[in-house]
Amino acid sequence: MSAAVHIKTILATLTWVPVIYTFTEHVYQPYFITGRSMTPAFNPGTSTMTNDITMVQKFGLKSPDSLHRGDVILFRSPLSPEKILTKRVIAVGGDTVACTHKYPKPTARVPRNHLWVEGDNEFHSIDSNNFGPISQGLVVGKVVNVIWPPSRMGADFSGGGRNALVE
């Protein structure tokens, strides 16, 4: 092969870099779920040190009705914005939730455009019971599927979390 053919191949390959970047930043992105706060929905085999890799939807999440109770989301920690946390939406704006012993009040009303989020594993989770409701503007993405390990592909992670709604 000539040098011109190699250069054309390299240039053709490089033209895909902006497309891939845009897709992963704004549409869908694979994401490693680490830690034990969402066990057993994610990383059920934490003793084997395996982490689930999920597909995260990043588009269409800013409208007030785009997220629902039971959705698993990624968001910037209100305590440490450089950290991305994974938790389950327990309540949406307008809901009243029963808080755990970590929260200073027995119940909390979730403000408009805010979410109450909790980890499925209460004893290993820093969540809304620690820092209160989060602004929907902190949401980075919504987990839509497990893509690794193959044995967990398509795993059903809905329905976890506690029923914390009051009334």
TrEMBL record:
Q: What does the UniProt keyword field contain?
A: Hydrolase, Membrane, Mitochondrion, Mitochondrion inner membrane, Protease, Transmembrane, Transmembrane helix
Peptidase S26 domain location: 8-101, 107-148
Cite a GO CC annotation. mitochondrial inner membrane peptidase complex
Could you name the active-site residues?
37, 87
Gene3D superfamilies membership: Umud Fragment, subunit A (2.10.109.10)
Q: Does the keyword Aminoacyl-tRNA synthetase apply?
A: no
- Name the domain of life: Eukaryota
* PANTHER family with a match to the protein in the record: MITOCHONDRIAL INNER MEMBRANE PROTEASE SUBUNIT 2
Q: Report the sequence similarity comment from the record.
A: Belongs to the peptidase S26 family. IMP2 subfamily.
Can you name this protein?
Answer: Mitochondrial inner membrane protease subunit
Question: From what organism does this protein derive?
Answer: Candida tenuis (strain ATCC 10573 / BCRC 21748 / CBS 615 / JCM 9827 / NBRC 10315 / NRRL Y-1498 / VKM Y-70)
